[in-house]
Amino acid sequence: MGYLYTFLISILMTFNTTNDIPYTNIEEAFLGNNPNGIVSYGKDKLLLNILGIEGAYSQSQATLVLKDFFIKKPSDSFKFIFKGKETIEGSFAIGNYTSKTETFRITIQFKKINSDYKIESLTIEKA
User: What's the domain count of the chain?
Assistant: First the structure.
């Protein structure tokens, strides 16, 4: 009976294919000044607010906007300091991004689409 129970649990876990938020990959993308690595986890349209300039951008446009930020403020460090609970609707996370001379607060809102969490909005503001 124990084997049957274990087998059934294994089957159920196989069908539960929810993907966790790729925090490590996003952190590495911020550290590497890699806008493609961030935007690749986004929805088709991303809401960006970078230092008070807001807009809804396609992935290719969002890549250019983030690239411009990284050129002006290259990364010295980045670390998520808060990761919200993952729900059926989405989640959010807050991180600290430091360039050579300034520190910024990064807020990312994730939306759950099917079994994946996609970046819906990203805000960069001075800390």
Answer: 1
How far apart CA 27 and CA 32 sit, in angstroms, is 9
Residues 38 and 9: their CA atoms lie apart, in Å, by 35
Domain containing residue 33: CATH number: 3.10.450.50
In this prediction the pTM is 0.84
Tell me, yes or no, whether 7 lies in a domain.
no
Q: What is the distance between the alpha carbons of residues 96 and 83, in angstroms, rounded to a whole number?
A: 12
> Virtual CA dihedral for 100, 127, 39, 120, nearest 10 degrees?
180
118 pairs with which residues across the strands?
A: 111
Query: Per residue in 60-91, pLDDT tens?
Result: 999 999 999 999 999 999 999 999 999 999 99
Kindly report the length of the chain. 127
